[in-house]
Design brief:
- With 360 residues, the protein is of the alpha+beta class.
- The chain folds into two domains: 69 residues, Glutaredoxin, CATH 3.40.30; 272 residues, no CATH class.
- The protein contains 15 helices and eight strands.
- The strands form three sheets. A four-stranded mixed beta sheet has the order 2-1-3-4, with helices on both faces. A two-stranded antiparallel sheet has the order 5-6.
- Helix 1 packs parallel to helix 3, helix 4 crosses helix 12 and helix 5 runs parallel beside helix 9.
- The longest helix has 32 residues.
- Bound molecules: glutathione.
- The site of glutathione has 11 residues, from helix 1 and helix 3.
Length: 360
């Protein structure tokens, strides 16, 4: 009997940060897939969490968390690869994923909710997406609260915009001569950065204009990542090298994001010193982490999950041979990522099913 193959289903939305990250990974892998508008009640039932996106596999497994989804795709469908094998390229991928997921959510919430025109357009989009203005406004009200929780306040607006302009300018210079972050082949780094840059900066009204006026190479990169034809892929940079334009990108990211991320991790660890019980569920938020962005105070909700994301960077980095780690350190010297790479967390978290727990 010929069973008809079933597709992978990406349950997400066009507006969704983490859906944009997973979407390009699935397209790059040339999978038989469909996108489905997320049904939160179904997601809640199957994962116990109200997070978008999830992926259901052809055999109806449920995968949740964009990072784990991409890990699993890579394990099941290693070709074409998203994860380079060389130490520097691997470290850069995980740093850019960390930057995107855990820091760039702040500029992303700023571009979405930080101007009246972006906010009112997003409310209209949410209304269209949910089927009624009332439901759209309810979802939007929750996101406005989330905006403040990630530090995207009006007071922090100028500093966030300075970061955004510097980041877009460095990315534009890089994409003038390279199709993707690591050369002419897509990688996990591109998937990660798609979250803020595609789902937010490119689809939010005010920042879309900014991209059109100042960052055309970034728009080209968004197009390339979303239509990553197998025949259009070239090679990653050779011999684990990187050009100056990527060092610049990493420098803007590291100088601004590393102190903010470390403040979060320190807040989580201080809380965990007193409160974490091995095997117990890690709360989503433990309080506020105070830091500064370009001289402006930034106050963000500190999430235990950020520690899990940092482990994704530090575990493989610590596993490198000394000579390999020295090579990575020398390539990243001066980018601002050094204090984060030098940090030794006192606590560990792990996943049990869809839950995050403190390790034994
Ligand atoms: N770490 C998760 C985060 C997912 C996430 O935060 N998704 C957003 C939409 S893009 C969401 O569902 N937010 C709802 C909430 O924060 O309660 C992942 O990587 O998939």
């Amino acid at each position: 009997m010929n069973a008809t193959p079933r597709p992978y289903l990406l349950h997400g939305f066009e507006v969704s940060f983490f859906s944009a990250k997973v979407r390009v990974a699935m397209r790059y892998k040339q999978l038989f897939m469909e996108e489905k508008r997320a049904d939160i009640r179904m997601i809640l039932k199957r994962t116990g969490l109200a997070f978008i996106p999830i992926v259901t596999t052809p055999d109806d497994e449920v995968w949740q968390d964009s990072s784990e989804i991409i890990d699993r795709l890579e394990a099941r469908h290693p070709n074409p690869p998203l994860y380079p094998e060389t130490p520097l390229h691997r470290t850069i991928c995980s740093l850019i994923e960390l930057y995107s997921d855990e820091f760039a959510i702040t500029p992303a919430m700023h571009t979405r909710w930080g101007t009246e025109e972006s906010e009112s357009m997003t409310r209209a989009r949410f209304g269209a997406m949910t089927g009624s203005a009332e439901a759209g406004n309810k979802a939007a009200d929750a996101m406005v609260k989330a905006r403040f929780a990630v530090g995207a306040t009006p007071e922090a607006g100028p500093a966030i915009e300075e970061h955004l302009h510097a980041c877009l300018s460095a990315l534009s210079a890089h994409f003038e001569s390279n199709d993707y972050l690591l050369g002419n082949r897509m990688s996990l780094a591109d998937c990660g950065l798609m979250g803020p840059v595609h789902a937010h900066y490119w689809t939010d009204l005010t920042s879309r204009r900014l991209l059109l006026e100042t960052a055309l190479p970034v728009i080209r990169w968004i197009e390339f990542c979303n239509a990553p034809g197998a025949d259009d892929q070239g090679e990653w940079f050779r011999a684990d090298g990187i050009p100056d334009s990527l060092v610049e990108v990493l420098g803007v990211m590291g100088a601004d994001a590393a102190p903010v991320l470390l403040a979060t991790i320190r807040a989580v660890e201080e809380w965990a010193d007193e409160n974490a019980k091995p095997g117990a569920e890690a709360p989503r938020v433990i309080g506020l982490a105070e830091s500064r962005l370009r001289g402006t105070r930034l106050s963000r909700a500190a999430q235990c999950y950020s520690l899990w994301m940092l482990q994704r960077v530090l575990d493989p980095y610590r596993d490198l041979l000394d000579v390999e780690r020295a090579r990575v350190d020398s390539a990243l010297a001066g980018t601002g990522w050094e204090p984060l790479l030098a940090y030794h967390p006192r606590h560990r978290v792990e996943k049990r099913g869809f839950q995050l727990i403190f390790s034994d």
